[in-house]
Amino acid sequence: MRLFAKLSLGLLAGLSLGALGIDLCLRSSLPQLDGEHALASLQAPVQLQRDALGIVTIHGEQRLDLARATGFAHAQDRYFQMDLLRRNAAGETAALLGPAALPLDRQRRFFRMRAAAVAAVQALPDEERALLDAYVDGVNQGLQALRSRPFEYWLLRQQPQAWRPEDSLLVLMTMFFSLSDARGERELALSALRENLPAELLRFLTPKGTPWDAPLQGQADTESAAIPPPQVYDLRSLKKSSFPQLSWAERSAPDPGFHRGSNNWALAGAHVAGGGALVSGDMHLDYRVPHIWYRLRLQSDSGLDLSGVSLPGVPFMIAGSNRHIAWALTTTYGDWSDLVALELDPADPTRYRTPQGWRRFTHQHEILRQRQGADEALDIDETIWGPVIRDARGRAYAVHWLARVPGAVNLHCRQLESARRVQDALDIVHLCGLPPQNFVAGDAQGHIAWSVAGRIPHRVASDGSTPLSWAEQEHWQGFLDPARYPQVLDPPQGRVWSANARMVDGEALRLIGTGNYALGARQQQIRDDLLAIEQARPQDMLAVQLDDRALFLHRWQQRLLSLLTPAALAGQPLRAQARTLIEHWGAHAAPESVGYRLVNEWRTQMHDAVFAALLAPCRAANADCRYGAPMFQSEGPLWQLITQQPLHLLNPRYENWDALLLAALDAVITPYAQQPGGLAARSWGERNTLSMRHALSPALGPLARWLDMPAVPMAGDNQMPRVQTAHGGASQRMAVTPGREEEGYLNMPGGQSGHPLSPFYSAGHQDWIEDRPTPFLPGKPKHQLRLLPAAAGTS
Asked: How far is residue 351 CA from its own chain's centroid?
């Protein structure tokens, strides 16, 4: 992606300063690590310690002092990252980075999230507002305490703007954008498919799940819909020119199908060596420098001892342990947005019908500021339900998205730090203001649980799977009563798990929504790994997290070998070479495996070829007809098609299904053979090479290596516990028993500091690369800064 490429000239001009001047500017923006510093509004002295990796421990008497010191540390180490996060949600990035960021700003400003964040701050309870205000004050004091502005602002020739309370809510809203379908795109695509495909074909293409499912409640979906007969849908009766040809160029983009998500699980005390629950989690996100998480330990004289990962910009811990409970998160991929089909007034299309009668659109005129460019106007029509979009046929819909509903974003999760039992945690998380997450927790007594953290909309009159009019009745009526939340507490098997796939069925599934769940293959592999472990220890959890066995692709490997018969290999030396590599693939997503890469790419090629043909007539009628990535259960119908091989559903460009299967393989191996080293050099690691870059590095040319993490071939893939692609994957890995944190581990890519001259810029990164477990708790202090009430300290 070249989002920031247009920054190049400006940044290189900024680098025209003398080398000595650059060095002085950069070093002056490093934080103070030792000594004393006066901090206004502190009630008592606070200790801010850093270990050899730069992991921060903050010790103080009062919780508000800890919040103020947390803000101070976040700003000193990560202010530019915080700035990008708030701007990302608000649609204000181009003002800092320039015109290259305008497309993102247009998408985000459409939702006017800054106004929503201001309203969310005003609605916070007094206790949460006090915590936020202390944190914001600490952020701004931390920024001001730097002798020079953070280095990124020197390169951009910009001044950082002060942090405001609403900015912390915007950071949380950024996570809503990443982890939910803000614009209802899946619903729009399903609506187009429903309008343009026979019902039998749609039912076949959109199963609830597959035999890969491994829900906590209910069973895997083992009964697939029947393939529709020719009299329902027959591609062979259409002209060949209407159908696409295979094109490898279309599949050359990195990481096709990367599904942001996570793994988490917990084992009950009866299955853990030494007792107490064992909680594990690894959140999967895009890689960036600096890294998204910031390791932190908070201790108070009143007994608080909280460790885990924080999100710079937010004043509470995202995942971790408080000596009594430990918790981890994965995104639910439930249905958190609905499209409201608007009934417009035929006599006045600026009016739409509501349960209270006709109302006129509210027109919002937004200005998108951009660095080194003219401002751009963005006009938005708003309804009482949300902003207005139009489909490919011009029909108007209001986007009703959870993140904009008052009360859906808050700081209630802060209360997890004081929970003593799993049941306490469940009572808290049902009111949390996060994008709804699979919440897995365990306590020191050995109890475990799963539920949803975050507000669930109370839907009435529909399941949210298709756009409907709300002119007669509001289909969202507040939030679901916490007493009705799906949850699993101390199940008989002594284990709970989640991996972004379907967790429940029946009424519980209806409450969460049909959503866009990940295929269950990863979740099933995790479940089976856990059920095979007794008297578990943290190192056993790391082995599960690093499980890169290719169980999902095994049947595809076998199918490909059966395809490559002597007849298929006759006069085809490249296919013969491919067969040998595929036969000896190693059955792991290992960096050195060529066979794994060939099987993976062949399946991807087949996926796109099959569904592009099936939907070609639909796409010709309606550009909103989309499949593939928005439909993550497509493995079910795809496998049925290539095994049963119904001729009437085959692209008419091909004589039979085996011809298509072989053409897909040739589309993979032919260009590979023409690259240096030939086919035998096309290892999985060549494609799966870590690309962890700073936001500014694309504009810096050869100087980018100064900011980026080294490119390293990596093991892992999507449909296995070890989720790893070039650009995304495990953003941290942890396993911990509350009360025995000294035995746990927590590591992550990148380092604590966002400053390339800091010793902590990449400290700990190599542990993550080499799969070495970093201790869960910070090590011995190497640096200590005393923060003193302003009247008593020196700065």
From this structure: 37
Distances (CA, A) of 716 to 224, 255, 377, 713, 745: 29, 12, 44, 10, 20
Q: Three-class SS of residue 180?
A: coil
Return the closest-CA partner of residue 173 out of 131, 124, 111, 123: 111
502 within 8 A of 208, measured Cβ to Cβ: yes
The answer to pTM > 0.85 is yes
Angle between helices 573-583 and 594-614 (to 10 degrees): 110
The reply, when asked if residue 338 is annotated as ligand binding, is yes
The rounded distance, in Å, linking the Cα atoms of 281 and 272 is 16
Query: Residue 91: which of 77, 81, 106 has the closest Cα?
Result: 106
Tell me the CB-side half-sphere exposure of residue 44, using CA atoms within 13 A. 10
Contact (Cβ atoms closer than 8 angstroms) between residue 752 and residue 297: no
Q: Are 595 and 582 in contact (CB under 8 A)?
A: yes
> Among 29, 262, 307, 310, which one carries the catalytic annotation?
262
Q: Which helix (H) or strand (E) holds 339?
A: strand 337-341
Residue 23 one-letter amino acid = D
679 DSSP 8-state letter? G
Residues 405-422: tens digit of each pLDDT: 999 999 999 999 999 999
On the question of a cis peptide bond just before residue 198, with omega within 30 degrees of 0, the verdict is no
| CA-based nearest residue to 53, from 299, 296, 417 | 296
Q: Give yes or no: 731 in active site.
A: no
Residue pair 579/565 in contact (Cβ under 8 Å)? The answer is no
- Per residue in 732-770, pLDDT (tens digit) is 999 999 999 999 999 999 999 999 999 999 999 999 999
User: Two tokens at 445?
Assistant: 């007594």
Confidence of residue 257 (pLDDT cuts 50, 70, 90): very low
Helical spans, DSSP H, in 146-253:
151-156, 165-179, 185-196, 199-205
Amino acid at 106: R
SS3 at position 765: helix
DSSP bridge pairs for 488: 450
Is 490 assigned to a binding site?
A: no
